[in-house]
């Protein structure tokens, strides 16, 4: 499936090695070293080709439809009960005779389909169909070809890269429209790199408008842990100069959506249902492709940003529920000139508040464990991050961790008995979804609340049950006597 998004952006040819054959097809192996290029230290000397791939999947790939127009690496198993193709389509076919399709696990394929370049595999299922190649463009190599990439170490590299990118200070403005279809406007003025921190809506469709100077790069750090996109579009910017970074996401679902840019999600699984990714992609978990979801072969020209080294090496950071509190634990294995950790909290992953400070070890080359207890989290979703601050004031942020605290709602209503105004006190009035009076006959009457008061002056005298429903589903009741 080819969508109209394919022709939105112009691809600079300096980012690709260009080749032609006698049929005038254009072959492109991205040649520039960019942010998602696999460093040579993680490549085997036996690999034919460079470190640029259209998609790198560290888990398994299950495809009932779709393709990868550029080079594809699957560290786990590859399963295709339907049609698939690698290295062709979109006007920028992968280079012939390089290792363009690598499966480090078990290859299972039910149909005969073609590809450009070499197919390298470790194992194959019984009676599986192998890819075919136009004459002179590639061969199948296997079984037993493994570890052309150092997968475990490479995945750690991309995890660290994702955290490093998420620590870059935003210099652009993010504006959310308050309507049913959310428009996210990203406005930047930098002629080099525009950095945005974005929280995608979970319950509404959305579109993204990118407004930046021509030829500038765009980094979009997405804070969500779970991402579900159904429709929508991205306008503006340049796909090859845009990177979507998901440092905390564990589950990404893209349905009928064209993502215009590179994608870095080293912790996430990906479900692609229609639509495409117009750029290089690195996915840490399993991937499913269906209804023609495609990886399009855009050569990135997003540069590797210059960053300040982290003041500490953070090896673990977790948040867990302990009763009605949140328990934060983290570990470091190296600290150099480190001063302190600031613990920040948010109820929406957008606005952050300082809730505590923990002094760091300062100088250490061994394992150090830290702990912090948040004694009064909000009822519902809580987000936490560490701000790691050096002696000279430089700092970096950790990944975001979240925990759900479902505290039983405590409702107090007074005066009781009541004549006119009834005052309501609860854990968080902003989380109240509805308030009802239930009479002796079981009839439920919706009540409106002004500030923290209910007008009871027109309610008949008698005994009622006051029911308070909260947005997280909690329901609290208390008996009220109306005089």
Task: Characterize the structure shown.
It is built from 1 helix and 39 strands. The protein has 483 residues and is mainly β. It folds into 3 domains: 40-295, no CATH class; 313-405, Sandwich (Immunoglobulin-like), CATH 2.60.40.10; 412-482, Immunoglobulin-like, CATH 2.60.40. The strands form 7 sheets. It has an 18-stranded parallel β-sheet that branches. Strands 27, 28, 30, 31 and 32 form a 5-stranded antiparallel β-sheet that branches. Strands 11-12-14-17 form a 4-stranded mixed β-sheet, with no helix packed on it. A hairpin with a 5-residue loop joins β35 and β36 (444-447). The chain is globular, with a radius of gyration of 27 Å. The N and C termini lie far apart (69 Å).
Summarize the structure.
With 483 residues, the protein is mainly β.
Summarize model confidence as the mean pLDDT. Answer: 86
The major beta sheet can be summarized as: 18 strands, parallel
Number of strands: 39
Strand content: over 45%
Binned, the helix content reads: under 10%
Low-confidence stretches: 1-28
Tally of separate domains: 3
Give the distance, in angstroms, between the N- and C-terminal Cα atoms.
Answer: 69 Å
Structural class category: mainly beta
> What coarse outline follows from CA principal-axis ratios?
globular
* Rg over C-alpha atoms, rounded to the nearest angstrom: 27 Å
Q: Helix segment count?
A: 1
Features:
mainly beta, Immunoglobulin-like, 5-stranded antiparallel β-sheet, 1 helix, 45% strand, globular
Explain the layout of strands and helices.
Elements: E1 16-20, E2 26-30, E3 55-57, E4 61-63, E5 67-68, E6 72-74, E7 78-80, E8 99-109, E9 118-124, E10 140-141, H1 151-166, E11 173-176, E12 182-187, E13 193-198, E14 206-211, E15 217-222, E16 226-230, E17 234-235, E18 242-245, E19 251-259, E20 262-265, E21 269-278, E22 281-283, E23 287-290, E24 294-296, E25 312-322, E26 325-335, E27 338-346, E28 353-359, E29 368-374, E30 380-390, E31 395-397, E32 401-405, E33 412-414, E34 421-425, E35 432-438, E36 444-447, E37 453-455, E38 462-470, E39 475-482
């Amino acid at each position: 499936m080819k969508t109209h998004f394919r022709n939105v952006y112009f691809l600079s040819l300096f980012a690709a090695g260009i080749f032609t054959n006698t049929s005038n097809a254009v072959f492109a192996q991205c040649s520039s070293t960019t942010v998602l290029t696999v460093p040579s230290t993680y490549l085997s000397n036996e690999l034919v080709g460079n470190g640029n791939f259209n998609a790198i999947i560290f888990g398994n790939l299950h495809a009932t439809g779709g393709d990868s127009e550029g080079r594809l690496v699957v560290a786990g198993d590859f399963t295709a009960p339907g049609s698939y193709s690698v290295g062709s389509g979109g006007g920028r076919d992968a280079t012939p005779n390089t290792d363009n399709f690598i499966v480090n696990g078990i290859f299972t394929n039910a149909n005969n389909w073609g590809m450009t370049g070499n197919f390298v595999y470790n194992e194959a299922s019984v009676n599986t169909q192998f890819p075919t190649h136009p004459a002179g463009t590639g061969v199948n190599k296997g079984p037993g070809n493994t570890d052309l990439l150092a997968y475990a170490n490479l995945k750690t590299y991309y995890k660290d890269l994702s955290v490093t990118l998420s620590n870059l200070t935003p210099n652009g403005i993010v504006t959310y429209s308050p309507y049913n279809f959310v428009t996210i406007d990203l406005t930047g003025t930098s002629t080099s790199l525009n950095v945005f921190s974005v929280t995608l809506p979970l319950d509404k469709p959305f579109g993204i408008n990118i407004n930046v100077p021509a030829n500038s790069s765009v980094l979009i750090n997405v804070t969500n842990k779970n991402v579900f996109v159904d429709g929508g579009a991205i306008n503006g910017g340049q796909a090859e100069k845009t990177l979507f970074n998901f440092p905390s996401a564990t589950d990404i679902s893209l349905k009928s959506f064209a993502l215009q840019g590179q994608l870095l999600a080293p912790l996430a699984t990906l479900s692609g249902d229609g639509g495409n990714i117009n750029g290089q992609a690195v996915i840490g978990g399993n991937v499913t492709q269906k209804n023609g979801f495609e990886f399009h072969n855009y050569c990135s020209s997003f540069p590797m940003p210059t960053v300040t080294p982290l003041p500490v090496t953070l090896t673990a950071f977790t948040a867990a529920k302990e009763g009605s509190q949140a328990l934060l634990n983290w570990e470091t294995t190296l600290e150099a000139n480190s001063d302190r950790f600031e613990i920040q909290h948010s109820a929406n992953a957008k606005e952050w508040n300082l809730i505590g400070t923990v002094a760091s070890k300062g100088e250490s080359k061994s394992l150090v464990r830290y702990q912090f207890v948040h004694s009064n989290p909000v009822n519902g979703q809580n987000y936490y991050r560490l701000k790691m601050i050096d002696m000279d004031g430089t700092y970096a942020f950790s990944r975001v961790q979240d925990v759900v605290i479902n505290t039983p709602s405590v409702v107090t209503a007074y005066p009781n008995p009541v004549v006119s105004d009834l005052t309501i006190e609860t854990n968080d009035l902003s989380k109240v979804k509805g308030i009802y009076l239930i009479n002796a006959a079981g009839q439920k009457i919706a009540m409106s609340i002004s500030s923290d008061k209910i007008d009871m002056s027109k309610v008949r005298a008698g005994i009622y049950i006051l029911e308070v429903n909260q947005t997280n589903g909690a329901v609290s009741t208390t008996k009220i006597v109306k005089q």
